[in-house]
Amino acid sequence: MASWEANTAHHDDETALVSLARDGDRVAFERLYRQHRDRIYGLVWRLCGGDSALAEDLLQESFVRAWQKLDSFRGDSRFGTWLHRLSANVALSDRRSRIRYIERETALEGAVERGATGEKDVYAGLRMDLEQAISKLPERARTVLVLYDIEGYSHAEIAEIAGMAVGSSKAQLHRARKLVREELDK
């Protein structure tokens, strides 16, 4: 019962902070930032392949966008859920613009997929191996794996966020899992 009460109190506190932030209270928004930054950083870090500098930029962009769009938060879900989805969209939008830039600036044939390798010494042992294997995945496969297996999105939600068919999301997940297993078996 204590856990439920704590969860309810946290939700009420978060609702109050969102309300204050909507009214322009920057201190309230800063508290929301502190509550959610680690989880959002983890999401964007994985989506950008472990590139720490890019993840920091995407983290900041996500919260800037959240501040700008705070009026569009209807409260149908928790603020954290809304922020999580907004941040995934920020990361995927950034990736699409980087791909368009690369395609425009280089004469490469076919789809260009960025395989970022950033700093990898955040975790040790097996967790580091798994994170490295995930970071080596092609962009679309990595996106689906992170959103489905790590963040818990459904294939329908991934399809909507990433602009792909549900079947493509399932196929990319199968591909990603196979590639991660192969990488970990090395």
Explain what you see:
With 186 residues, the chain is mostly helical. It folds into 2 domains: 1-119, Rna Polymerase Sigma Factor, Chain: A (Orthogonal Bundle); 122-186, Winged helix-like DNA-binding domain superfamily/Winged helix DNA-binding domain (Arc Repressor Mutant, subunit A, Orthogonal Bundle). It contains 8 helices and no strands. It has helices at 2-22, 26-47, 52-68, 79-105, 125-135, 139-150, 155-162, 166-185. The longest helix has 27 residues, at 79-105. The protein is elongated. The N and C termini lie far apart (47 Å). The relative contact order is 0.11. Residues 1-8 and 107-124 have low confidence and may be disordered.
